[in-house]
């Protein structure tokens, strides 16, 4: 499903060129649950950005659902992101003026899905994450765990090929983290492919495969 071959990603930092990903090759199959770990500066976040088509590699090949995405235009990358990838962020990235239904259905505004169907799909996912009783609440009226559930429902609205979760429990207490990881585990059991960046060993244990990065390369994959 996700195939990276000899990916290199560098950044200009003043007069210095920093290589964040150094010749990384990686394959992630459909319905895998993969955790990517590493210290700050290891390259894990840059790798996640490449997988999510948020960063374009300097060289190498990236195939998503058999599409070569490494050389696509910005508009084509945006279309790929909207149709194939669901994002879950540590800071939720919800729009404060929209209620739960509005936030969950937001990605469908950029598709051809009719408004009535978009709302129906949103309400179904809101129920799936256990927030029907909060469907008309704004983000500031909810706890961190509830906001992350909204973010998960939003990530699922376009029926993505893969969910990319960047530190999904980073702003949550241990009890709420457990609840969120139970929800992600259930989605995985239902067939969802999940790739998650985390620095917490106990969170990584929920994944079936753990990749460790250091200095832009994969040092362990099991």
TrEMBL record:
<dbReference type="GO" id="GO:0022857">
    <property type="term" value="F:transmembrane transporter activity"/>
</dbReference>
<dbReference type="InterPro" id="IPR017911">
    <property type="entry name" value="MacB-like_ATP-bd"/>
</dbReference>
<dbReference type="GO" id="GO:0016887">
    <property type="term" value="F:ATP hydrolysis activity"/>
</dbReference>
<protein>
    <submittedName>
        <fullName>ABC transporter ATP-binding protein</fullName>
    </submittedName>
</protein>
<comment type="similarity">
    <text>Belongs to the ABC transporter superfamily. Macrolide exporter (TC 3.A.1.122) family.</text>
</comment>
<feature type="domain" description="ABC transporter">
    <location>
        <begin position="2"/>
        <end position="222"/>
    </location>
</feature>
<dbReference type="InterPro" id="IPR003439">
    <property type="entry name" value="ABC_transporter-like_ATP-bd"/>
</dbReference>
<dbReference type="Pfam" id="PF00005">
    <property type="entry name" value="ABC_tran"/>
</dbReference>
<dbReference type="InterPro" id="IPR015854">
    <property type="entry name" value="ABC_transpr_LolD-like"/>
</dbReference>
<dbReference type="InterPro" id="IPR003593">
    <property type="entry name" value="AAA+_ATPase"/>
</dbReference>
<dbReference type="InterPro" id="IPR027417">
    <property type="entry name" value="P-loop_NTPase"/>
</dbReference>
<dbReference type="GO" id="GO:0005524">
    <property type="term" value="F:ATP binding"/>
</dbReference>
<keyword id="KW-0067">ATP-binding</keyword>
<dbReference type="InterPro" id="IPR017871">
    <property type="entry name" value="ABC_transporter-like_CS"/>
</dbReference>
<keyword id="KW-0547">Nucleotide-binding</keyword>
<dbReference type="GO" id="GO:0005886">
    <property type="term" value="C:plasma membrane"/>
</dbReference>
<dbReference type="GO" id="GO:1902495">
    <property type="term" value="C:transmembrane transporter complex"/>
</dbReference>
<keyword id="KW-0813">Transport</keyword>
